Amino acid sequence: MRPHRGSSHDDATSTAEHRAGRPGDAWVYLLRCADGSLYCGWTVDLDRRLEAHSAGRASRFTRSRLPVELALALAMPDRGAARREEARIKALSRADKLALIATAPHRPDNPGRSR
């Protein structure tokens, strides 16, 4: 298990939690909120982070826009790559984010995701 270097997004991860994010070691994700807005973030444990967003514990932005649904999840090779990709996506226009959602590969083990 690698040492945790701290993150505002996740607490220290156990070996089992770390494996949950495979094939990448980190994820960048876009959520579609109830009001139609989009939220971008990164995590090392996508399932746990989605649960936190759904429970209103992950961010003030999504807490006031529940429910949220996963629109896009991209596996990243490491935390640094995830942070860089998150920054790149946040800088995109809404139209570009929607185009990314429409064209990017999606997390295959999330059959409940709706478009």
Task: Give the SSE layout.
Elements: H1 15-20, E1 26-33, E2 38-43, H2 46-54, H3 60-63, E3 68-76, H4 79-90, H5 94-103
Antiparallel strand pairs: 1-2, 1-3
Overview of this protein structure:
This protein has helices at 15-20, 46-54, 60-63, 79-90, 94-103; strands at residues 26-33, 38-43, 68-76. The N and C termini lie far apart (36 Å). The longest helix is centred in the last third of the chain and has 12 residues, at 79-90. The chain is of the alpha+beta class. It has one domain (15-103): GIY-YIG endonuclease. Strand 1 and strand 2 form a beta hairpin. The protein has five helices and three strands; from the N terminus they run αββααβαα.
Oligomeric grouping of the chains: single chain
Structural class: alpha+beta
Distance between the termini: 36 Å
Mass-distribution shape: globular
Largest sheet: 3 strands, antiparallel
Task: Tell me the fraction of residues in β-strands, as a range.
Answer: 15-25%
By CATH, the superfamily comes out as GIY-YIG endonuclease
Radius of gyration: 13 Å
User: Helical proportion?
Assistant: 25-40%
Q: How many strands in all?
A: 3
Number of domains: 1
Supply the number of helical segments: 5
Helix-strand pattern: HEEHHEHH
Spatial strand sequence of the major β-sheet = 2-1-3
Give the mean pLDDT: 80
